[in-house]
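Colleagues,

Please find the record for the three-part complex below.
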Amino acid sequence: MRRLNPGETAFGYLMLAFSLFLLYQTYKIAGFSSIDSGGAYPMFAAALMVISSVAVVIRNRRSPKVEAAGPAGEWRRFRREVAPPYPLIGYVGIIVLYMLLVLPLGFNVSSFLFLFGSFWYLYRKGIWLALGLSIGSVVSIYIVFRLVFRVILPEADWLDLSLIGLGG
Amino acid sequence: MEQSLSYFIMAWTDPYLIFLTAAGTFAGIYVGVIPGLSVTMAVSILISFTFTWDVNEALAVMAGVFLGGVYGGSRTAIMINIPGAPAAIAAGFDGYPLAKLGLAGMAIGVSTTVSFFGALFGIAILAAAAPIVSEFALMFAPRDYLLLAILGIILIGALSGESLAKGIFCGVLGVLIGTVGLDPISAQPRLTFGSMALMGGIHYVAAMIGFFGISEVLVQTLDLKKKIIKQKVDKILPSWSVILKHLPLSLRCSAIGTIIGALPGAGGDIAALMAYGHAVRSVKKPTRPFGEGAVEGLVAPEAACSSAVGGAYIPMMTLGIPGDAVTAVLIGALYIHGLKPGPMLMIETPHLFWFTVGNLVMASVFLLIFGLTGIRAFAKMVEMPPALLMPIIVILSVVGTYSIQNSLTDVYWMLAFGIFGYFLKTYGFQIGPIILGVILGPIMDISFRRAIITVRGDLGDFFLDLLVNPISLVLTAATVGLLIGQTPVWKRYAAGRRAKKEAAAG
Amino acid sequence: MHIKHFIGAVAALSMTVAAGAGMAADFPAKDLQGVIMWGAGGATDVVARAVTPLAEAALGKSIVLTNKTGGTGAIATTYVRSRPSDGYTMLYGAENPQMYKVLGLAEIDYDNYYAVNVLARGVAVVVVNADSPWKTFKDLVADVQKRPGQVKMGTTGVGGLPHTVGSMLKTVIKFDVTAVPFDGEGPGITALLGNHIEFIPVGIGAAAEHVKSGRVRALSVVNGESVPSMPGVPPIVADFPDFGKYLPWGPFYGVFVNRDTPDAAKTALTAAFKKAADDPKFAEMMQGRGNVMMNISGAEADTFLTKWRSVSSWILQDAGVTKESPEKFGIPKP
């Protein structure tokens, strides 16, 4: 058996809680009314999920532990190996920020900012290269998706490009 | 017969039709490559685009896009573990490990050759036995779809990685993701938490892109400076001996693919997963263990999903019933062009059938040509620094997810699945079973309930039907056999017997 | 850059800010978006993709079509309602929104929309497999009444056409069947061909070719009179005159914009779609699929939509599948 990764024990319990929550939610759909009701099948699935997460928790308890000094040590290792601030947490932050900006700024502007930011943050080869690459990518995505495949990407209402002949 | 032949070669003698098929196939490959650009979407757009065209021209370009798109999805699955289309999910199970070994060029070469072979197989069945196969497909009752889905879901056992419990956990997680939204039977909301946006459910491609794409991006982001694997691109064309070695498996998987493609309501994605399962169970000595770069694990799904194209045309041409989502759109296109798809189509417009067959054959040839010529450039893509590749994948995942049904909610789910998927991967859970659950879960749900309703809730009748009907009996036997084969007791027994045999032989 | 050009662009931009009346005068000034409430390849999708190129020609701008599925179209209906009422976002819809209120799927229906054009309505037909012993609709009904709950009818889920026709029959005669739901009319017909169900009421479009090939037999059209696309098939009122009170009834396909859209935009769109629906090629395709062309808009369409809603809402109410009573929304009995 492999040694547990930092945070694995906690994750196991979290998944058990999550599956119990889903079991309750699926029970609420139709209760135990009949075998072909809309709720019976999801409830069966959720029950199976509870059983398998119990098995995961038991297995975790039997596995060799991380040789760390209590929860504090494990937390330190979690921060170092599983979710380090740079680059992982920072990058997830950038992605989340990007998603939040898609609606107010529109797809093109927010994507440009996201690409520019991440090239600069991850690649670290100078600002001009990042600028050029991100403009190039946004333009090609716009051509493929908006112009060829006619996907209406979210656009900011205040930035109506269509009237000056760019979008539409 | 002579007349059929003249219709068959119609596509081959008109330079403009040849050009359209080639252009369609080429475009299709790239539609397949980009996650979120789906063949269904491309063909829908082509309907308006080709509105004023002649019907043959429209069909030629659509056939090319269809075949090319189904094939193209495996590219990115092999290169960066992100399937470009649902049909390519299974291709990544062993394709991506091959790329990690520096064999991406070889993997794409094999995938292209096998896809060409599978496509031809499916088309041959379409040409030779379409009426028989479509009658066979009609015989599948709801309970048989249930059994098929169960046969597919058993594959979780082979995809679980370090622990079966984790595999089952992921499988049912996928099943539950698939139940979100309005229940198709009772129209009552399930797991929507009162949200309007969740009523339409979570599209399975959003789950696919999140769990594969974003979680892979996060894994790679952790290790930006890792050594990039040099890809060998000198030997791309597989040798005859390799092709011959895998011929029996390709044949079996093409047969699976054609049948599943011909079943209304099941397409290339399910065909590929079933074929992968078949390979895992039937190939005793793979080139490498399955999941670590077995060539067989790539051959099987690729043969199946390409042959499913020909299969999907079978009920469409003979009965006007779609074999999958793309043929559903094609049927719409036929209507718009003034044709009447249905059982009379082959009688009233016989040329259409042979024209389509000839056209599909030509598209397969173009698939081989374009597939084999573009490999070098593609293999170089993996050698791009991850710091440049990853943000581009994020953008493509966002725009791709959004374009499935123009929904930002899907995009948020995609991101959530990606982050969740990262932790699952870190803690030894596998992504494959989740996707298996998302794809097969809804079929199991609705087929089970349909089957129960059909026997008016009488479980006795339900089990009796499983044994009386020939198709159901075969599927039941296969399911029960596989389930027993997966139990630890049987595995130990089989291992013991094998050891004894080997001891006796050696 | 030419100064003149630049000023033009600025003027155009400031006009967007001003929006409203000024813009509608030369409607449409940019490309439009059409949101289809059903998926690619479905009946609504086919109708939308067939009529759009013709309307585009009349409007002189393109209409970008997108499928936005889910909640039997409730997602698309709610989405278009939430867009600016400028006429640039249209809903390509079927009959479903008229049942959202009673089914508890959404707070809105076509009352919140202006009907640019209700293009056509479909007619339902009751079909059985050719092997079936039932030769007439009376045979089928007699057998259903002899073996209550035993005969298997295909449906497409609650509120779908087969389910509603079945519910209508229940109010007229004793009609107790087992309803087996499928994903749509196509899969329902497929199940009928495979003998997994015994009969199904479907739109003529889904059944016509199968009837013509002789594998499926049409017993009765759910209409006041026979229809040309189903020659020799008696209307349901011939057997059960009481059914007449629900007719004409059937699925319909239309193009809608928010009701508070400026009149200039409504007029331009109505004219364009009227012209498109008049196109013989489109009409031929629609009739070939067993539809009755309607090509109505505005008040005329409202009358049709309102009657349709009261018939269907009360049928669902009587069948006991509603979440809310039609009374709550002031929907009168038909």
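The radius of gyration of chain B is 22 Å.

Comments are welcome before we finalize the supplementary table.
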